[in-house]
Structure formats: C-alpha cells, structure tokens
Amino acid sequence: MRAVLFFLASLWIPGFSHGAASLIFLNQLAKLTLVRGSILIPFILFLAFIGAYTSNNHLGDLLVLLVFGLLGYVMICSGWPRAPLVLGFVLGKIAENNFYISTIRYGSSWLLRPTVLILIVLTLVVLLYPLIRFHKRGASVRDPTA
Amino acid sequence: MKTLLNLRFLLALTDAVAALYALYASSHWSLRPALFPRVIGIPLLFLALTEMLLSVRGTEKQREGHAVDFQLTTDVDPAVARKRTTSILAWILGFLVLIVLVGFPLAVPLFVFLYLRIAGREGWVLTVLLTAVSWLFMEGLFNRFLHLPFPQGWLFSLWS
Fold this sequence. Notes:
Chain A is mostly helical.
C-alpha cells in the first residue's frame, strides 16, 4: 500500500509542481517570443548541437542533425508535413518489434482479429476520406446544379 | 523539364529509390527479417510513385486535408529569402567546423560572439555579456556539473 502511495505521489507531485511553475512563469516565458532572432539563433543552435552530441557523445551525430535539418527544410519547401516522419522514427522500432512478435505468434491470422480489423478500417477511412471529399467537391465545381 | 526537377518531385523520387533499395536488399533475406521492410517498402514505393505523378501533373495546390503547420513566409522577396537561407546554412556549417577544430567548450562562446557581432550586429556590451553567459553555461553546467565528455578538438589534439 505504501509503495502504491509512493508511486502515485511520484507521479502527482512533479505534475502539480510543473503545472504550478508553468502557470507562475507563463507570462515571463511568453516574452521569449519577443526576443530578437539574432539573439535567439546562436543559443538555439548551441542547444541543438549539444542535444545532438549528448545523445551518444559522438560528433557524428552533429552531421545527422545537419542532414535531418536540411531534409526538414526541403520538406517544408515541398509542402510535405514533417510530423509523419518524426512519428515513423519514434514508432518505427516499436511497430517492427510488435509486428514481428504478432507474426511469430499468430502467423498472418492476426490480421483478422477484431481490434486489428477496426484499426485497418479506421486507417482506410482516414486515408480515403480526403480523396472522396476532393472528388465530390471537384464534381460539384464542374456541375453547379448538382 | 522544370516541372520534373522541382523539389517535391525529387523528394518523392528519393523516397521511391529508398523503397526500391529496401525491397531489393530484403529480397536476399529470409522471410522473417525481410517481412517488415517489404510491408513498409511496397506501400512506400506505391505512394512515392503516386506523389511523383501528382507533382508532375502539378496538382499540389488543389489538394486538401494536409496538416498546416510551419510554413515559409511568402511576403519576402525570393532573392532575399535565398540569401538569408544560404547565410544561416553557412553559419551552421561554420559552427560545426569550429566544434571539430577547437572543441565544444571553446567553439560555443566563439560562435556566439562571432554571430552576435557579425550577423546580428549587436552592440559590444550585449555581445560580451551573452558570450560570457554561453561560456558559463558551457563550462558550469555541461562541463563542471554534468561532466559531459567533450572531445578536445582537432587543432588541440595536434599538439598533445
């Protein structure tokens, strides 16, 4: 019981203190947006480079940072959203592991399990809905009386 | 030709090549390790080819439903925007070279000083103050407090 309370406290106390600190300093933090870019840029670069380096303590990660920075810029110029790429990187390994485990355990029959079927249908809806909407709108533009 | 060589087309082409490579590489593997690259590679190839086709047809502006997040400003002259992009890219590359040459502890204050003075055209007081702050951060927080193992820097390693 004491362990459970300790566990809950370890979740709640940081949450509440973080929330309280955010509320107290919110106005001051918002003022950061008014700081000139020429002052922010060197510090943002410094923190980005330090963050990349400390992930593995290897200078090669700085090159990875540059390559992905350039890729992000090219994606912005091409109108590609970056969120799916980030999600893919974060979830890719988890998805691969669980895909492998499911296939080993159930073969291909895991694709017919109810939860998986619901997720497949939801994915198809999300993928196809913009296309259907686009075609419907295109048809109504071509034929205003429709 | 201009349409074929736009960034959107090239990005889709890169994706298609990556997908083709994944499919080719996994074709020599046994089924189990090859499963995931194939499951990801086939739809990626299909979607990349579709995107290439759409970019050639120039249907980008008619498309709807994609997330609107960070966008480049359109009210700046493209020549000025290109100049600014090249400039900041050069500064970033310069920072990387500086880190490799003299190591993090020296490169950070040096970069902050040079950027604020040359690119930012800030006054001496602010430049020196912020350089001192960056050095304090570097030396106090990352070096003394967190004991991060920063490499020495290529120039210094020549003498030691």
